[in-house]
Amino acid sequence: MAETFDAVIVGGGAAGLMCALTAGQRGRRVLVIEHANKVGKKILMSGGGRCNFTNTGTTPANYLSANPHFCKSALARYTPWDFIAMVERHRIAYHEKELGQLFCDESSKLIVKMLVDECMAAGVRINTGCSIERIVRGEGDSGFRVHTTQGAVSSASLVVASGGLSIPSMGASGFGYELARGYGHTVLPTRAGLVPLTLSGKHQERLQDLSGVALPVTASCNGRSFSNQLLITHRGVSGPSILQISSYWQPGDDLRLDLLPGRDAMDWLLTQQRERPAAELKTVLGDAMPKRFAQRLCELWLSNKPMKQYNAPELKQLAATLSAWPLVASGTEGYRTAEVTLGGVDTDEVSSSTMMSKRVPGLYFIGEVIDVTGWLGGYNFQWAWASGHAAGVAV
After folding, report:
1. What is the DSSP letter of 275?
2. What's the rounded mean pLDDT across residues 259-274?
3. Which of 11, 28, 61, 231 is 20 to 30 Å from 133 at the Cα level?
4. Arithmetic mean of pLDDT, 372-386
């Protein structure tokens, strides 16, 4: 006789654990099935091991989705402050790094321990090292029978919290997408998000020996701009500004970098010309950005001569290049290093208030498997908490 639960949750990551503890606190019998040997692996590695667990500035505008309105309901009903209250209740010390990003002072292990402790207190069962072999839907509206490597269980509700395709070395797979398709759901095309960009050919040759050089930029593409650090790598470019814009960029799209962020390039050049007429452009730029990068710009993109020798049209051309320097990327580093997966289960077929499928009663989708993707900086964890909570109060 298969053991019976009110809810079986597939995936013991951020969204799955949040859903489990929320449902468990309502007195529901909950089972979490995790195929890895421990839960919360992506939480453990996030934020350099300190877990950027939320962002105090979270709004629906910080998310990408084919339906930008879908995330509003869940985010409004479980806010960053709700999660912070749980963190403080467990006496986990944290700090704000920048732009509303909250990190643990010590270790991301404390966040996983908090979630597991909450699950245990709520009577949730967690089966790790457990893989799903097949799922059979009951007759009519009578729930699901889940066959696993640790036996079969029955459940009225099945919650898919299996994540996306990002970081396969952590066990990511397309399981959730396949399950969704099997139940007649549309899965929107997926691609790597929050991911370094690669360069090729002469574009890579021009920069690769500058690997390790970092500078502040404003990266712009398709009407979106992000100001933060750029890091040159052996294979291309990374850093927060590039990871952010990568979610809006696709091969062939025009990508521009403002190399003097926060300054009017023309005003700045005129000031330099007036105050340092004998200084060469590469010297002047070397005071505003890393010297090696300034030198390379002057070798390949800009003419280098003393500031006093530039006429007005030349200065105008310099300003245009510095404020919108074209970066021709060829691709991304892919799911191997991507922090998130863009696309996923079509939100048009899921209830925005409960996360339940509009096609199959009792089937829920939460977290990264849905077509909702946050910016860099704690927004994806906040979506995990909010969507997990929304399903947890409904199952």
Report:
1. H
2. 97
3. 28
4. 97
